[in-house]
Amino acid sequence: MTLSIAVENAAGTVLASTEAAERATLVYRGNYAPGDRIRFTVPEPGYYQVRADDTIDETLVYLTGTGFAFTVPFGAAAVPYNPKAFTGNLHLASLRAATADEVAATRNLALNPLDQHDEADVWPHAHANAETRNEPVFYARNVIDGVTANTLHGEWPFATWGNDNRADAEITVEFGRPVDLDEIVLVTRADFPHDNWWTQVDVSFSDGTVKTVHMEKSDQPHRFAVEAKGVTWVKVGNLVKSDDPSPWAALVQLEAYGRNA
Q1: Which of 46, 95, 172, 254 could be cross-linked to 24 through a Cys-Cys bond (beta carbons 3.0 to 4.6 Å apart)?
Q2: pTM for the full model?
């Protein structure tokens, strides 16, 4: 079994790399530039613990291929990340196979701070049919990054999914494999009075189940018990706002608690 991590530039030139049988750790001494990528390579599909930067927690992801490249964010793409992330000239990345206990544990199966807008084969993955002004700070991926600050908007740590004020907006989190869920938690943005809020939404699952849930004006998590077995995705849609005059309502986090099926 060989695990490898490499930093490569936009032209594909390898700037630094390492490989290991059990745990790969790469210390990169250099400044990232636009177009740089951190490439993680694994011997087979499965569950892996991945760290792309020392400011981002090690993350358990499910890979359906033999690796992926994380594009180092710059400009608007960097706004949803900690301002200290990927900066300076000393960086840490790591890669290892997840343990059996980690794979079997009950946890938030939607969590993936390494999710990228257009990345395939790395799960979970969030996507939506509407994102406010197509700005990264309002991308769907922000609802699974694990950051729950919700009293402002437009900058880290207040990145959200913004639905562009569309009545038909919906957001989906795909798990990439069947999972059993028993709780959904929605953290909505509470930048009042700038924000409105949803009084109800539909939470639907890949098995055809739909649960209409009710919410109130709050900066606290909204928790809902569910019984979803062997599902591969969860979707939030049919968003009904209150009669508050503000047109804006947004989702900060979508958490899905359960175990791998």
Answers
A1: 95
A2: 0.96
Residue identified by tokens 């709050």 is 218
Answer whether 37's CB lies under 8 Å from 73's CB: no
238: left (phi over 0), alpha (psi -120 to 50) or beta: left
Same domain, 85 and 120: no
Which of 49, 80, 104 is where one domain is finished?
A: 104
Parallel/antiparallel/unpaired status of strands 107-108 and 37-41 = unpaired
Domain check: are 28 and 76 in the same one?
yes
| Residue 97 reports pLDDT greater than 80 | yes
Surface-to-core class of residue 18, CB atoms within 10 Å of its CB (0-12 exposed, 13-18 middle, 19+ buried): middle
Say if residues 210 and 202 touch (Cβ distance below 8 Å): yes
Q: Which is nearest to 166 in space by CA: 143, 215, 127, 132?
A: 132
